Amino acid sequence: MNELIKAKLASLPESPGSYRMLSSEGTIIYVGKAKNLRNRVRSYFSGCHDQKTEALVANIHDFDYIVTQSEVEAFLLELSLIKEHMPRYNILLMDDKTYPYIEITQETHPKLVITRKPKGTNKYRFGPYPDQGSARETLELLNRIFPFRKCPVLPDKVCLYYHIGQCLGPCETKVEPKVYLEMAEKIRRFLDGSSSELCQELKAKMADQAQRLEFEKAKVTRDLLQALEKTTEKQKIIFADKGNRDIASFVTYDHYLAVAILFMRQGRIIFSENRIMDIVGDPEEAFLSFMAQFYETSLIPEEILLPRMTDLSLLAAVVENKAKVPKKGKKAELVQMATENARIHFETNLERFLKKHEKTIGAVDKLGELLGMEPPLRIEAFDNSNLQGTFAVSSMVMFINGLPAKKEYRKYRVKTVKGPDDIQTMKEIIYRRYQRLLMEGGPRPDLIIMDGGLLQVRAAKEVLAGLYLDIPVAGLQKDPRHQTDVLIGLKEEGYPLDRHDSLYV
Which pick of 29, 232, 290, 308 has the fewest CB atoms within 10 Å? Predict the structure, then answer.
């Protein structure tokens, strides 16, 4: 503990607030919240801790804090700071994973679509589904049964879907809104688990087609009926109220947290989400942070069931008071089921998690050690490409905490360079990227990696110097077979790479 930290610890207030732990370079490496800042922050620098917390404390060279009026405000501020700064030692939902939903669009002539942005009000939104394939399978079945609009924009005349009976042809004929409403209600009842009405309609339609000797049409209807019955049989109703609820719980071992969320829709458990995380500090607080981040991108159901030790006052502000802690009965049994799922997932997947961890955070640590710098938590890498000297493009990929941040990926069309000039192309792209970053603001990378040797590295350094930016630059040098074999370091030294090493790109 340095003298600066000692002095700050002595003057900490006994107020609620959020605190930020800083590295020697001023990088935010952890954000937390506290009911009592004095007690919480001091606890990091006294007593024994687990391995992960010890690693955090060893990297703390300074801290700051913001006082709030309540612990709830501190919790919300903590979430905001985590989202903004993405600190290394916090739980981060970095995979950008969202679940697909099926919804009927709110248009004059609606259509069935899959969305991963379920915010807003729409009573005809159904899900979530475990993956795109499951949602697509259900969507295709519904589109075959219900003649909703299929075209993104209404054409001038009817298309093939109209002629095969899968569209009402609103482009040429007037369709009353009540017709769409009746179909929407049938879909809602079907996805709510009441499939008998729709099955009876299809059976009657198939019998009528057979009676009129339209055997090909009857075969198509039979296939639809079988697909419908197969979809209906997939889930078992376990709650008579047919409610929509999520059931979440966790288990903790050492500095690992395993979370399981069971998704119940219309009284049926449709699938589960399981995670293992490396955490710092109190497991319950880590669980709350995970849940709050999770529901920033997920639809909040009618009810969220949580284990008994959960502080609902903190989560209530995020999940609109939908969280509950059942003490007994079937709902409490569901929470216990989620706990058991978390335990089993941890026991069966820890080894896989550790291997992935070695290839992400472990690789970042190793890269920082090799280059003689703090672990580069935010990395931007650049590459150029062309087709026989024409159609030149460049791309930038980003890694945060060792994980690909795909929403931050960028592709650039080369504007000023004619012909296959890799160095000038790299200069143009580096200039455009970081001039814009200076103008618009935003976090700067801890490390830039060029897909190339010394010439590309020096080109990037030259441009950055002209922009008065001090960002470390490394390079990936290729062998004659165009395989990466040497890492160009910050002082332009070369480090041979083993293809079996976690650092290998």
Answer: 308
Summarize pLDDT for 387-439 with one digit per residue, the tens. 655 677 899 999 988 888 888 999 998 888 877 788 999 999 999 999 999 99
**332-353 residues labelled b (16+ CB within 10 A) or e (exposed):** eebbebbbebbbebbeeeeeeb
Q: Residue 397 and residue 52: Cα distance in Å, rounded?
A: 29
CA 229 centroid distance within chain: 33
Structure token digits, residue 148: 């909703």
Question: Whole-angstrom Cα distance, residue 223 to residue 238?
Answer: 28
Q: How far apart are the first and last CA of the chain?
A: 37
Report the pLDDT averaged over residues 107-120. 81
The residue extents of the domains of the chain are: 3-85, 101-233, 245-359, 364-496
- Find the helix or strand (DSSP H, E) in which 434 lies: helix 422-440
pLDDT at 452 over 80: yes
Q: Does domain 245-359 have CATH number 3.40.50.2300?
A: no
| Dihedral sign computed on CA atoms, order 191, 192, 193, 195 | negative
CB of 239 within 8 A of CB of 269?
no
Give pTM, 2 decimals: 0.67
What CATH number is given for 364-496 in this structure?
3.30.420.340
> In CATH terms, are 3-85 and 364-496 the same topology?
no
Q: pLDDT digits over 292-343, tens only?
A: 888 887 888 899 999 987 778 888 878 888 999 999 888 999 999 999 999 9
The set of residues, in sequence order, having a beta carbon less than 8 Å from that of 97 and lying 6+ positions away, is none
Q: Tell me: the pLDDT tens digits for 464-487?
A: 999 999 999 999 988 878 788 888
Say yes or no: domain 3-85 is CATH 3.40.20.10. Answer: no
Does residue 230 surpass a pLDDT of 50? Answer: yes
Q: Which residues, 6 or more positions from 349, have their beta carbon under 8 angstroms from its beta carbon?
A: 274, 276
Q: How far is CA 463 from the centre of its chain?
A: 34
Question: Pairing relation of β-strands 378-387 and 447-450?
Answer: parallel
Please, which pLDDT band fits residue 502 given cuts at 50, 70 and 90? low
Q: Nearest-CA neighbor of 453 among 421, 431, 478, 428?
A: 478
Tell me the average pLDDT of the chain: 85
